[in-house]
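pls read this protein:
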Amino acid sequence: MSSARASMASMLAVVTALLAQVSFRVGPVPYPMQNTGVIISGLLLPPRWALASQLLYLLMMALGAPVAAGFRGGVSVLFGPTGGYLAGFPIAAFLMSLLREWYLKSAGKHFAGLGSKNLAVLWLLSALSVVPLYVLGFIVFSYWASINPSLLTWALDVAGFFELASDIRVAVAVASVLIFVPQDLLMDHVLALIVAQRVARALPSEYCALTGDCVPQA
C-alpha cells in the first residue's frame, strides 16, 4: 500500500509540473493550471501523501528541474515573487485531503458515488483548502512588490486593466490574489473534482487502497 501511495504521489508531482506549463493569458495576467494538480493530490491521496506529493514537486523545482510555470526551475523560483504560492501547495493538498476525509465520513458517502450536491460541497471545501496558499502568496508578493518597482508597476497595470483599483495596497491584493480566484475555483478545482472522481469510479480497488474510501461490493 505504501509503495502504491508513493507511486501515486510521484505521479501527481509530475502531473502538477505538466499542468504548470498549461496556461492562458487575459491581458497582462498569466493563468497557469498547476492548482489542478494540487487539488487532485488531495482528492486521490491520504493527507500525508498529498503533502508529500507537492513537497516532491517543490524538491524537483529546487534541484533545477524546469517544472515551475514557464519551464522555470531552481531555488531562485522558490524564493521569488511567486514563492509564497509554491510554499502553499503542500499545505493546500494536505488540507484538501483532510477535508475530503472529514466530509465523506461525516456525510457517510463515498467519493466515487457523490452526486452534484455533494460535489458542490466538496468544491466549497476545496476553496477553503487554498486559503493558506493565497495568504502566503500575498505576503511574499507584497514583499517583492515593495522592493521591485517593475513588479509594483505590473500590479498597478493589472488592477487598472480589470478596473478594480488604483490604490497601491489594494492593487497588490488584486494582482496577487483576487484575479486568480475565479480561474482557480471555476476551472482548476472543478477539473480536479471531475478527473479525480472519474479515476475513483474507473479504478475502485486502486482508489480504495490509496485512500481507504472503499465502496462495499454488492
About this structure: The domain at 1-129+187-211 is CATH 1.10.1760.20 (Arp2/3 complex 21 kDa subunit ARPC3).
